[in-house]
Amino acid sequence: MANGKTHMLAGGILVSGLYVVDKKLIRKEDLKIEELVGSFFLGVFGGAMADLLDPPTSPNHRQFFHSVVFAAIVLLGKDKLYDLFKLDH
Known about the structure:
Helix content is 70%, strand content 0%. The protein is an all-alpha fold.
């Protein structure tokens, strides 16, 4: 079974990857290093929160918080925060 550090690293890599796919393949925009780094750390945070909100002892562990859907929600949340604080303009 993976430990917390593995979950955080996997979350960072997954959300960063989703950012690259969204930015380059879907929106056809240039990558921004601050958004890439922000995506990584949001993924790390999401990986940590998954185990806090849905501990490994839970019968539902590895359901919602260990899904690509949750990573996509984190990525969309990042976009909304950037829009709210005008960080990408």
